[in-house]
Amino acid sequence: MNHPYIVKLHEVYEKVLIQSDWANLKSETKEVIEAVKGEPSPSKLIPKKSVINYIVFEYCSRNTLFDYLCQKPLSLNASVFYFRQLVEAMLFMHRTRVCHRDLKPENLLIDANFDLKLADYGFAAKLDNKALLYSCKGTLNYMSPEILNYEYAERHGYNGELGDVFALGVIFFAMLMGRPPFKQADPKTDPHFKLLYFQQFGQFWRIWETQYAHPQGIVIPEGFKTLLTSLLQYRPALRLSLNEIS
Ligand SMILES: Nc1ncnc2c1ncn2[C@@H]1O[C@H](COP(=O)(O)OP(=O)(O)OP(=O)(O)O)[C@@H](O)[C@H]1O
Ligand SMILES: [Mg+2]
Fold this sequence. Notes:
Shape: globular
Order of helices and strands: EHHEHHEEEEEHHEHHHHH
Bound molecules: adenosine-5'-triphosphate, magnesium ion
């Protein structure tokens, strides 16, 4: 995908290794090949011929957004800067009818110019006109309630674009506060998400502002709070769409 905020794929190639190459490989490489091939006893089973697939991406030298959030939350300006870049990348992706399905700070790389690059298409899926998907993929903290409801989702489908929007809300919250807003978007098991489910937004923010005060003492502006709770709506139909954000 050719977009300034999506990591570029340079090349995909396959290398066939023969027995004589094998002897020259580093032991770590051999271990990886053997692990991938699932062979039980590497010493007995040196393969005559092995194939390695390489995927070469542009290099993003400044780690991931996750590495920054492990240290401290972003400033308001930096949060807005990266939120905008992520929204642009997502709009482009959804317009090309691709759903990411694993949006999270670990998959947001930062390049040498401090620009964001969306990466990791391991769970990406092609979208049809209705954007309906039937397989539930993602990372628990970032999955929307309708995706977490596996049985229903697999039978009736869920809107993949709005699933990505929910993850965007979790990421934006994590940028501002330095941690995700809840462990799992399940009102039965997660007290923080329960407040969002019952639309008790005042109480939700009070808890965050009192019990988990921002280390830099920043108060989240009201407009940001409204944006966040609109992205984190339990019901996908009430959730803000990317077009409404931009
Ligand atoms: N183009 C890149 N430039 C710099 N670092 C990268 C790049 N691609 C991936 N990484 C680093 O490798 C990590 C894992 O990459 P990626 O998310 O694509 O794979 P993954 O399937 O999630 O792997 P894992 O299961 O180990 O998380 C990223 O979180 C990042 O730290
Ligand atoms: Mg990843």
